[in-house]
Specification:
By secondary structure, this protein is α/β, with parallel strands linked by helices. It has one domain: Rossmann fold, CATH 3.40.50.300. It is about 35% helix and about 25% strand. It has nine helices and ten strands. The strands form two sheets. Strands 6-7-8-3-9-10 form a six-stranded mixed β-sheet, with helices on both faces. A four-stranded antiparallel β-sheet has the order 2-1-4-5, with helices on one face. Helix 2 runs parallel beside helix 5 and helix 3 runs antiparallel to helix 5. The chain is globular, with a radius of gyration of 17 Å. The protein starts with a strand and ends with a helix. Bound molecules: adenosine-5'-triphosphate and magnesium ion. The site of adenosine-5'-triphosphate (ATP) has 11 residues, from helix 1.
Length: about 240
């Protein structure tokens, strides 16, 4: 489904990511973990089409999408929740979601994967606060809107950058429970996380990023070994 090969990308002329290879198969949940400054956000922004690759390829379902601009990547089934969420703060929750739903409907010929009602069933808040301006919601509530909006663009792969950082534990629990439901429905997930505990809990396998390179792969069933490997965790993941 997603196949990244030899990816080099960065800010301006300065590469931040070097020779990154990674894959996500249909239905898989994969994590990218790494310390502050490892290049996680640069990777997400490159996959989202906000940073243009300097070298390498990004193939989604057989199509090279490295050159496809960010606002068209949802047409390739890629949904993204960015660190800063990028919602329309002055618009209501409903309007933020309806705009996404309209775009998603236009892009997707067949039956919708997620409808407005579906996402409201996932997060009760979306119905309760439908008329509130998004800018008035808490960070955690905004994150729920951001996830719902991404889903309404009808992705089969959802890429999320530090979804739960800085949120209250109760909200983190609610969001992770929804992610588990989405996984069970077959959505593929690329979860970028600083918290190894959350990554281990939520995904099948992982890539460890350090200074812009994949320095280690955690394969299926190997999460516990990584958590036990204190040297690696200490050196590359900040304990
Ligand atoms: N706008 C920018 N211009 C130039 N360099 C940047 C910019 N944003 C980040 N960098 C640099 O790119 C590198 C990777 O940063 P990135 O934000 O991708 O890391 P990260 O793994 O997401 O870190 P964090 O866990 O803090 O979110 C860092 O060395 C950082 O200083
Ligand atoms: Mg980041």
């Amino acid at each position: 489904m997603l196949n990244v090969k030899g990816l080099r990308a960065g800010y301006g002329a300065v590469p931040v990511l070097h020779d990154v290879d990674m894959t996500v198969a249909p239905g898989e949940a994969v994590a990218v973990v790494g310390a502050n400054g490892a290049g996680k956000t640069a990777l997400v922004r490159t996959l989202a089409g906000l940073i243009r690759p300097m070298a390498g390829s990004i193939v989604k379902d057989g199509a090279e999408i490295g050159h496809v601009p960010g606002h068209r990547r949802f047409r390739h089934g890629i949904g993204v929740v960015l660190e800063n969420r990028n919602l329309f703060a002055e618009l209501s929750v409903r309007d933020n979601l309806r705009l996404a739903e309209q775009a998603g409907k236009r892009a997707r010929g067949g039956a919708l994967r997620y409808t407005y009602d579906d996402v409201c069933d996932l997060f009760a808040l979306l119905r309760e606060r439908a008329d509130s301006a998004v800018g008035l919601l808490s960070g955690g509530q905004q994150q729920m809107v951001a996830i719902a909006r991404a889903l309404l663009l009808q992705p089969d792969l959802l890429i999320m950058d530090e979804l739960t950082t800085g949120l209250a534990p109760r909200i983190v629990k609610e969001i992770l429970a929804v992610l588990n439901q989405l996984r069970a429905r077959g959505l593929s997930i690329l979860l970028v996380e600083q918290s190894v505990a959350i990554a281990a809990d939520m995904t099948d396998r992982a890539y460890v990023l350090s200074v812009g390179r994949v320095i280690h792969e955690v394969r299926r069933g190997e999460w516990q070994a990584l958590l036990n490997d204190k040297t690696l965790v200490k050196a590359y993941l900040h304990g």
